[in-house]
Amino acid sequence: MLSYRHGFHAGNHADVLKHWVCVMTAQYMVQKDKPIYYIDTHSAAGIYSLNDALATKTQESQGGIKTLWDAKLPAVFKDYMAVINQLNPGETLKLYPGSPWFVRQSLRPSDKVRLFELHPQDFQLLRKNFDGDKIVAIEKQDGFSGLKALLPPPTKRAMVVIDPPYEQAKEYQQVVSAMEQALKRFVNGVYLIWYPLINRNDKQSMSETMVRKLKNLNAKSFLDVRFWVSGADEEQGMYGSGLAIFNPPWNLEQQLNEGLPFLVEKMGLTEKAGFSVEYKEVT
Ligand SMILES: C[S@@+](CC[C@H](N)C(=O)[O-])C[C@H]1O[C@@H](n2cnc3c(N)ncnc32)[C@H](O)[C@@H]1O
Q1: Which among 15, 111, 122, 163 is annotated as catalytic?
Q2: Is the Cα dihedral 40, 258, 269, 78 positive or negative?
Q3: Domain range spanning residue 242?
Q4: Domain-located, residue 6
Q5: Ligand 1 lined by 203 (C-beta under 6 Å)
């Protein structure tokens, strides 16, 4: 049942969008002294080799992080790229981090990290990658119920990443239900939900329906960012991705509008590549 391995997709255009946003959000949250909880409901392995059998089979990083590796980047990508450079001190890009690793690099000894992963192999890799890290706790448990049990966090500040594989249709509704409960328990959390843009009608409409439902939940502010490398009708499979964000940092919208034209330029495959950023505040 658990067939998804993130190693096939590590460093693709969707990872770049997600992880860049994760780093900017974490950097913003640690500007205040008060400790935070970082909760990752679907963590996967934490670090990926771009030369192993999984990554070389799909070569997805070619159209993603590899387009940025030698490029002169706008300042808004500095912190994101610093994490990658730290893992790859030589001239070649060999390793690509996952969401828990990216966010962990911004955190302090007083913060707490709670990671969930169900796949036996990725769970083992995750444990190995964070071995000895005192602020990190890892559970081989369903991330949706894990999240529920952790809210509200004792620190009253939290960043939550929800990044399911969406291999089963029910996951779209699980995200909505998890967010409904999460906002009831802890309305002030910063929640980032990743979703795919796929050019098969059924899946596309599942993402659209999920985002529409999320947008209508009782929250203080909501941002929807999307980045696509081609038009929906031009690419087989996933042509882009998005993040639905509750309580985003106040400067995130501006940072996204600064950086996204660069990603379109570097990773866009056709004239129809593009992005959108929509922000909604409830006053
Ligand atoms: C898209 S990957 C996560 C990638 C990771 N967040 C990153 O950005 O580096 C989704 C992961 O969720 C795991 N998974 C699937 N269902 C789960 C569940 N109910 N609870 C926890 N993990 C789950 C899969 O095994 C897979 O490793």
Answers
A1: 163
A2: negative
A3: 11-281
A4: no
A5: no
